[in-house]
Amino acid sequence: MALTLTSSAFEHGASIPRMYTCEGRDISPPLSWSGVPSNTKSLVLIVDDPEAPDPKAPQMVWVHWIIYNLPPSISGLGEAVQDLPTGAVVGLNDWERQAYGGPCPPTGRHRYFHKLYALDRVLAGLDRPTKTEVETSMEGHILDQTELVGTYEKSG
Question: What gap in Å lies between CA 8 and CA 17, rounded to an integer?
Fold first, then answer.
């Protein structure tokens, strides 16, 4: 069975509800996954926006959330998750915080990629890592991956 990632808050390709954005409560949406390979040692979740600052002229990928070393025994994260499973660590987002930062596009409708990776190892030797540092540490260790895409455009 292939690795899948879903949310009870929005469908793949649909709009992310306002409560999960900077215009709402800015809390993380509920996420669920299944199909984790049996030899998985850890999971990594990365949420980013490849269309910053403007989808018509993207210049960078903005990182909203990084969690690594999620145990393969769990099947998701609840809404507004605060207490992560033992061993899980939050990386540094582009606001330079170790936290979730919801969609907050300056202009236009952006796509937000929620990417889940199953790894054959636990990541070690990282200290407040950026997305690039986590991805470098994951190289050669990805067993499977999947993504859930949501969109958001600020009102007014």
Answer: 11
